[in-house]
Design goal:
Length: about 170
């Protein structure tokens, strides 16, 4: 009888013990998300009064990302507060596009604000429209841009043409 009682107690204890070990073995550390790569495909020099295609290719881990949110922020040099946000639409194979028109010669900037899989990347590109008189181009207020960028997405601002910023 004692053996029978011992068996009734031991079997459930062993089963519970085995169950805990299996659960622990299947729990893994979450993988570090891979960098979101965004390549701007928009030309750096464009004509005025023509429809311009803003475009970016999004990939992660070598695979095209077709479920990203892409917004193109475009503004004329020195006039960031007058800029506009234009939603990018998926064309195919991780390529997102939108259109705009520049109605006068100038230096413009574009951020391709891109978010996918909880990662944000916002490469910046300078665009020259027409033949601007460089003496009339307003300089970028780097201090104001840094402040705005840091407050918006906790990203810095770099004046290089193809700078990538990311935040995991």
């Amino acid at each position: 009888m004692k053996k029978w009682l011992l068996a009734l107690i031991a079997v459930p204890v062993l089963l519970v013990g085995c169950g805990d070990k299996k659960e622990q073995a299947t729990l893994k550390e979450p993988a570090e998300p891979q960098m979101l790569n965004v390549k701007i495909l928009t030309p750096k020099e464009v004509a005025i009064n023509e429809t311009i295609e803003l475009a970016a290719h999004v990939e992660q881990g070598g695979k095209n990302i077709d479920e990203a949110i892409v917004e193109f922020e475009v503004w004329e040099s020195g006039k960031r507060d007058e800029g506009q946000m234009i939603d990018g639409e998926l064309e195919k194979d991780g390529v997102y596009k939108a259109t705009t028109t520049f109605d006068h010669d100038g230096i413009y900037y574009m951020y391709a604000h891109t978010t996918a899989h909880t990662i944000h990347n916002m490469p910046k590109q300078q665009i020259t429209a027409g033949s601007p008189d460089m003496t009339q181009v307003l300089p970028e207020d780097k201090k104001a841009n840094n402040s705005m960028d840091n407050n918006m997405m906790n990203h810095g601002n770099d004046s290089s043409e193809d700078t990538e910023h990311s935040n995991h």
